[in-house]
Specification:
Distance between the termini: 26 Å
Bound molecules: 5'-O-[(R)-(carboxyoxy)(hydroxy)phosphoryl]adenosine, zinc ion
Oligomer: single chain
Number of helices: 10
CATH class of the largest domain: Alpha Beta
CATH topology of the largest domain: Nucleotidyltransferase, domain 5
Largest sheet: 5 strands, mixed
Order of helices and strands: EEEHEHEHEEEHHHHEHEHH
Strand order of the largest sheet: 3-2-1-4-5
Number of strands: 10
Shape: globular
Structural class: alpha/beta
Radius of gyration: 20 Å
Length: about 325
């Protein structure tokens, strides 16, 4: 089956074509305009998607060597995400699907992040544990099979990506903060500053990162000449220690041997290295970097799975900015 995927949940405009489980072409355009505001401005993001989508979809199909008439389905991110940007993508996708007379499937963005791991390793087998770490979510999922997910724990406040972004802002770095903070941390010593790690007792699988960010703020206020590389490395390490410890607890609790990492923070090299080292006895899978952050390949892949099994959305399906999984 040939499926076009469209992703507009935040500030990445993306389109991809998936054919029989293989991604033929995947295009992503990151909206750089938000950098000067220090974060995503929803209204601007919607307008940027509107400007880009038509041409991006045409280019993607052309690069894939596929005409619109050959498309057999469309998958589009239904939520969670920014209401306005989701509406832009879903309206575009509905118009195209209706015009072509083909089925459409609204896809859960979080579920798509998890399924990006099947693109990394097509031999991945259920059940597995997923550490989902994005800008809006930090969750541990017991993925039993498609559509059968148990939430083991999640953040009570900030997501891990938010902790990176807010930490980066405190350190005077640009947006998005995760990659910037990671770069700064490369030349730092992670053992320099002791930052708090919340909820680290008794196999607790919940997370909390808001205290960490406040602690960084107080630390920076109390220092005149802090070595920013060391501070960034220590801060990053505190986040990673919590994530990897809880991932290990989740594997132990469920007796699962396989784990996957998903979402933008999964692009962090230190996190990837720590997971590999700490979980050397487990099968560990990460998507390639471009499939960790927002993309349409994961949407097209998951959409094709659903559509090829007859699960299409009704033509009037709504966007769900707070869409849940499980
Ligand atoms: O999954 P994603 O692209 O968008 C959401 O669905 O939220 O995740 C974006 C988040 C941002 O908070 C960004 O700072 C973080 O992922 N991120 C990183 C890295 N690359 C992206 N965090 C740490 N290290 C990175 N290399
Ligand atoms: Zn995402």
């Amino acid at each position: 089956m040939i499926v076009l995927g469209i992703e507009t949940s935040c500030d990445e405009t993306a389109a991809a074509v998936c054919k029989d489980g293989t991604i033929i072409v995947s295009q992503i355009s990151t909206q750089t305009i938000h950098r000067k505001y220090g974060g995503v401005v929803p209204e601007i993001a919607s307008r940027e998607h509107e400007k880009l989508l038509n041409e991006m979809v045409s280019d993607t199909l052309e690069d894939a060597g596929i005409s619109k008439k050959e498309l057999e389905g469309i998958a589009v991110t239904q939520g969670p995400g920014l209401a306005g940007t989701l509406i832009t993508g879903v309206s575009f996708a509905k118009g195209l699907a209706q015009g072509l007379g083909i089925p459409i499937k609204g896809v859960n963005h979080l579920e798509a992040h998890i399924f990006a791991n099947f693109l990394a390793d097509p031999a991945l087998k259920f059940p597995f544990i997923c550490l989902l770490v994005s800008g809006g979510h930090t969750q541990l999922w017991h993925v039993k099979k498609i559509s059968d997910y148990i939430l083991l724990g999640e953040s009570r406040d900030d997501a891990a990506g938010e902790a990176f972004d807010k930490g980066a802002r405190i350190l005077g770095l640009g947006y998005p903060g995760g990659p910037e903070l990671e770069k700064l941390a490369e030349d730092g010593n992670p053992d320099t500053v002791v930052f708090p790690k919340a909820m680290m007792l008794n196999n607790n699988l919940e997370f909390s990162f808001s205290g960490l960010k406040t602690s960084l703020l107080y630390y920076m206020d109390s220092q005149n000449n802090a070595n920013l590389n060391d501070v960034a490395a220590s801060y990053q390490q505190a986040i990673i220690d919590v994530l990897v410890t809880k991932l290990k607890w989740a594997l132990d609790t469920t007796n699962c041997m396989t784990c996957v990492i998903a979402g933008g923070v999964a692009a962090n090299k230190s996190l990837r290295d720590s997971v590999k080292t700490m979980l050397s006895g487990n099968k560990v899978i990460f998507p390639e970097l471009a499939l960790c952050t927002d993309n349409a390949a994961m949407v097209a892949y998951l959409g094709e799975l659903y559509l090829s099994n007859g699960h299409e959305s009704s033509p009037a399906f709504p966007v769900l900015p707070n869409m849940k999984l499980g």
